[in-house]
Amino acid sequence: MIEILGYVVEANSSFLRVIALSQIGASCLKQLGFKEESPLSFILSIDHPNDRVKLFQQLRDSDFAFSAGREWSPSELFEFFRDQGFLSGDYIRIAWVDGTRTTLTRC
Prior knowledge:
about 110 residues; 7 strands
């Protein structure tokens, strides 16, 4: 069974938004420099594209998943960075089925 501390819900050129699933995940995000937006929702501004790649690696290594979706979702960005040689190894993709259940897949 795959267990995660949270998941990246949004990743664009200026910030990352991550949902923590527990206080352990929240503490991990705070150590990485994320600021709490609301309970268990965290955001971090990105100044340089290399910072985003570094954070993707740190989040993956800390057992955070990357959400699937449309139009350059966090999981698609992870795969793009991996295809370009900026990241290597597996990551966990989280997707929603019927809007209520989640699936976790090691990719």
